[in-house]
Specification:
Largest sheet: none
Structural class: mainly alpha
Helix content: 40-55%
Number of helices: 12
CATH topology of the largest domain: Endonuclease III, domain 1
CATH architecture of the largest domain: Orthogonal Bundle
Strand content: under 5%
Bound molecules: iron/sulfur cluster
C-alpha cells in the first residue's frame, strides 16, 4: 500500500483510494455547485493526503520566511539542502541582517536567482531588526512591507509559524489545479486567492494549498495529469474530455463483448 505523503518519501506517494467508492473511471460525473464542489474536493483531499505539513525545514519564523523566499522558482527539496549551512552560519534576523552579502549569495546560489534572493533576505532581515524588534511580524499588512515578501510567502509564514490564516497560498500547482477543478477562472494569483477564500472554510485555507501541491506532484502533473487514476475525476470539470474518452472506450468494450456473445450463440 502506498505511503501517504511525508518528508521521508518526498511527497511523491500516490493517494490512497477513497473507501467505498468505485475506481475513478467508473464513477458518474457529479454536477455540483461550485461551493459544494470545493467542499467535496477538500474532504477527499483530506482522505487522500491525511498529513499536511510544510515541506520546508525551519526552526523559527524567520527561518521559515527565508526558506519560503528561497523556494521561489526552486524545489523545496533543493531549499532544504541549502538551509542547514545557511542557518548554521546566519541563524536569526540579526545575523542575516549583518551578513556579508557575497557570503550570503554563495550559500543560496544553487536555489537560482541567488543575487536577488540574497539581497531581499538581507533587506527583509534588516527591516525585521529595525522596525519589528527582531521578531517576524504576525500580520499580512506588516509582513508584506518586508522586501521580497509578497502574499504567498506571508501566507506560508502566518499559517505555519503562527497558525494564522489570512489567505490561501497560491503557487503554480494551486493556480493550475484550482482552475481545472472549476473553482476559479482567474489567472492572477491574488484573484485566484480571493476566489478560493470565498469557497473554503478559513481553517482549511493553508492545508488546501499544501494538499493541492501534493496532488500536483503525485497525480495532476502539469504535463501528463493521471486523470484515470485521480480520485477527483468525477468532480473535475477540467477532465471532461478524459471522461468522454473513457466512456467511449468502455462502450466500445461493451459492444465488442455483446457482439462476441451473440457470435457464440
Ligand atoms: S481529474 Fe485530471 S485534471 Fe482533474 S484534478 Fe484529477 S488529474 Fe487533475
Amino acid at each position: 500500500m502506498p505511503l501517504p505523503p511525508s518528508k521521508a518519501n518526498g511527497y511523491e506517494a500516490t493517494p490512497l483510494p477513497l473507501p467505498d467508492m468505485p475506481p475513478p473511471p467508473l464513477r458518474p460525473f457529479q454536477k455540483l455547485a461550485k461551493k459544494q464542489r470545493a467542499l467535496e474536493i477538500l474532504s477527499r483531499l483530506k482522505v487522500m493526503y491525511p498529513e499536511a505539513p510544510c515541506s520546508l525545514d525551519y526552526t523559527s519564523p524567520v527561518q521559515l520566511m527565508v526558506a519560503t523566499m528561497l523556494a521561489a522558482q526552486c524545489t523545496d527539496a533543493r531549499v532544504n539542502k541549502v538551509t542547514p549551512a545557511l542557518f548554521q552560519r546566519f541563524p536569526d534576523a540579526a545575523a542575516l541582517a549583518g551578513a556579508d552579502l557575497l557570503a550570503l549569495e554563495e550559500l543560496v546560489r544553487s536555489t537560482g536567482f541567488y543575487r536577488n534572493k540574497a539581497k531581499n533576505i538581507q533587506a527583509a532581515a534588516h527591516k525585521i531588526v529595525t522596525a519589528f524588534d527582531g521578531e517576524v511580524p504576525k500580520t499580512m499588512a506588516e509582513l508584506t512591507t518586508l522586501p521580497g515578501v509578497a502574499r504567498k510567502t506571508a501566507n506560508v509564514v502566518l499559517a505555519h509559524a503562527f497558525g494564522i490564516h489570512e489567505g490561501v497560498t497560491v503557487d503554480t500547482h494551486v493556480k493550475r489545479i484550482s482552475a481545472l477543478l472549476g473553482l476559479t477562472k482567474q489567472t492572477e494569483p491574488v484573484k485566484v486567492e480571493q476566489d478560493l477564500m470565498k469557497l473554503l472554510p478559513q481553517k482549511d485555507w493553508e492545508n488546501w494549498s499544501i494538499r493541492l501541491v501534493y496532488h500536483g506532484r503525485a497525480v495532476c502533473t502539469a504535463r501528463t495529469p493521471q486523470c484515470l487514476k485521480c480520485e477527483l475525476l468525477d468532480v473535475c470539470p477540467g477532465a471532461a474530455k478524459v471522461r468522454q474518452t473513457a466512456a467511449k472506450a468502455a462502450k466500445a468494450r461493451d459492444d465488442r463483448k455483446a457482439k462476441a456473445s451473440v457470435g457464440e450463440m
